[in-house]
Amino acid sequence: MSSTTTEQEIALYSYWRSTASWRVRIVLNLKKIKFEYKEINLLKGEQKTEEFLSINPNGRIPTLKYGDHYISEVIFIYFSKISSHLQLLNFLKKLLKEKMFYQKIH
Length: 106
Fold this sequence. Notes:
Number of strands: 5
Radius of gyration: 13 Å
Strand content: 15-25%
CATH superfamily: Glutaredoxin
Distance between the termini: 16 Å
Strand order of the largest sheet: 2-1-3-4-5
Number of domains: 1
Number of helices: 3
Helix content: 25-40%
CATH class: Alpha Beta
Order of helices and strands: EHEHEEHE
Shape: globular
Mean pLDDT: 75
Structural class: alpha+beta
Low-confidence stretches: 1-8
C-alpha cells in the first residue's frame, strides 16, 4: 500500500435495507466521496461469517474500510460535518491515531 490513501481505498460494507447504511451512503454521495459498495446480506446472515467478523468483530453494518483499517457504527454521525474528500481523509487519519478503527485480523 502506498503512503497516501486515495478515494479508491474506501469501501462501504452495507445492506440496502439498513437505515444506518442508508445514511452513510447518502452522506458519502452528497459529499461526492467515491467508495466501493460491498453488500453484506443480513437476511442471509453474511454479517456472521468468519470473513466479515474478521473485518468487524461486532458483526455490524455499516462498516467503512479505509486502507487496511475499518470503522463502524456511531462514528458515522460525524460525517455530517465533513464537506470534502480531503476532510474525510484527514478525519479518518485522526481516528487512526486515536485507535478508533478495527484492524483486520489476518
